[in-house]
Amino acid sequence: MASALPMSAAKAAKKDGKSPNLGHRTYYFNRELSWLEFNRRVLEEALDEQAPLLERAKFLSIFASNLDEFFMIRVSGLRRQLEAGTVVAPPDGMTPGEQVAAIHERLTPMLERQTRCWLEDVQPSLREAGIKVLDYGELKSKQRKLLRRHFKSEIYPALTPLAFDPGHPFPHISNLSINLAGRSFPKSTRSSGRCVACSPTSTSTMQSPRLSSPVTPTRPARPATTRACPSAVRGTSTSC
Known about the structure:
- The structure is a single chain.
- By secondary structure, this protein is α+β, with helices and mostly antiparallel strands.
- Helix content is 46%, strand content 11%.
- It contains six helices and seven strands.
- The strands form two sheets. It has a four-stranded antiparallel beta sheet. Strands 2-4-3 form a three-stranded antiparallel beta sheet, with no helix packed on it.
- Strand 6 and strand 7 form a beta hairpin.
- Helix 2 packs antiparallel against helix 3.
- The chain is flat, with a radius of gyration of 26 Å.
């Protein structure tokens, strides 16, 4: 937790008839660490076993999305300062390097608690309530066939391989996107029986398209409906 303000120092200064030195680092919280403490309180909402189950799942999601923004904006700013060799510290006195180290130290146990909360508490409780987050291997044969059809009709047409090699720069990777990297071979390689490993190849990346719906039904809607996420390309689905 964040340390308390140094009230004893202020009282000592007052007792000695001196004005407190408000420029001293101990009078200030670090902005980034203070924000992490805010997000800790979000996580504590998810850890509250008295809260409704779906609310707990929502707070786990909020905790994670907050961290996405934190790293994209605040931590990336600290890293830029490190790369630029910035040594000027803010009023709290912590250099960019000290802040990055403190963030790592404070955030690691929070992430461990988040993972345990989801895997050992919230997810099993959701399953008992009839809401199942499944691996692809847990889906039934008909559900897999539906997902394959969905992939071929909705996802595959939107995939655009972007090749990179010494003559082409590495493609831009968008934040919060799912990307695949792979090697492609000429179509004639396999049909001719030639060694695939010895054939000319092209290395490329593909970004998973952002589909309009976060879930895909895997059977007709009824009181117990099974749904699979577009992240089925990653081997997971949601059943509820």
